[in-house]
Specification:
By secondary structure, the protein is α+β, with helices and mostly antiparallel strands. The protein folds into two domains: 121 residues, Sandwich (Immunoglobulin-like), CATH 2.60.40; 80 residues, Cupredoxins -  blue copper proteins (Immunoglobulin-like), CATH 2.60.40. It contains two helices and 19 strands. The strands form five sheets. The protein has a five-stranded mixed beta sheet, with no helix packed on it. A hairpin with a 7-residue loop joins strand 9 and strand 10. The longest helix is centred in the N-terminal third of the chain and has 33 residues. The radius of gyration is 26 Å and the shape is globular.
């Protein structure tokens, strides 16, 4: 006969082993569940018809700008055209209100370099810092055209200087330079992380971890305007949404 104390100890030991095993299984399954939460939206931006032309910038208006760009034909790159009529610098976002997520501590950066803002289009979160730095060793000016509370108007007279502003409201924010009127950048400001900017060569974009459900997606281009599509996002799956801008003949 097995002593009662031995039997109780064995049962307790077995129970502890089961609990440990369950905890290990839960730990292994947790990353998979986290990966499956939300879906991915991928797509391509393109246009029909002939390639739109970008105007050549007359850098001679500023001798410093002309000198740094000598031998180059610099254009006002409104249309960033890639392969097979692909279109870059299009801001794509998911419409709607979503549960709060942490705002990135790293600033979104735009550079004043060779008398051009680069990149031309970026995305940022409400509450995130926008940093505009000057890589040119001469005067520039950071002047936003805001209809909300994202106003800034500050000079950067020499290389190494920057302007930082905490973005407060959603909008498509234009950044200009009062010294060089051709300098333009755009900041798509949204309250959530579900946005992207199409890249130039292929016109592609990816928005990850989008909460599941029926969603409205908008694509914005500074000249072509806004297109809208509806999609259904499913956990752990990828849905493709392409946008085509049709030029007027």
């Amino acid at each position: 006969m097995v002593p009662a104390e031995y039997s109780r100890d064995s049962e307790e030991g077995l129970r502890q082993k089961v609990l440990v095993a369950l905890a290990l299984v839960a730990a292994l399954l947790a990353p998979a569940a986290a990966r499956a939460a939300g879906g991915t939206i991928k797509g391509r931006i393109s246009f029909t018809g002939a390639e739109p032309g970008n105007r050549v910038i007359r850098m001679g208006m500023d001798p410093m700008c002309a000198a740094v760009n000598r031998g180059k034909q610099v254009v006002n790159e409104i249309y960033q055209v890639g392969d097979n009529n692909a279109l870059g610098s299009v801001f794509v976002k998911v419409e709607g209100t979503f549960p709060a997520t942490p705002v990135p501590a790293t600033p979104v950066e735009i550079d004043q370099t060779a008398c051009i803002y680069r990149p031309r289009v970026v995305g940022a979160r409400v509450g995130q810092v926008l940093r505009v730095k000057n890589s040119d060793n001469w005067l520039h000016n950071v002047h936003s055209d805001s209809s909300k509370r994202n106003s800034v108007n500050q000079s950067t007279p020499q290389a190494g200087m920057d302007v930082k502003v905490t973005l407060k409201d959603e909008e498509m924010l234009r950044i200009g330079c009062d010294v060089h009127r051709w300098m333009t950048a755009w900041v798509g400001i949204v309250a959530h992380p579900y946005f992207a900017v199409s890249e130039g060569k292929g016109g592609t974009f990816t928005i990850a971890n989008v909460p599941a459900g029926k969603r409205t997606i908008t694509a914005w281009h500074e000249a072509f305007g806004t297109l809208t599509k509806a999609v259904e996002v499913k956990d752990g799956q990828t849905v493709t949404v392409d946008f085509v801008y049709t030029q007027k003949s």
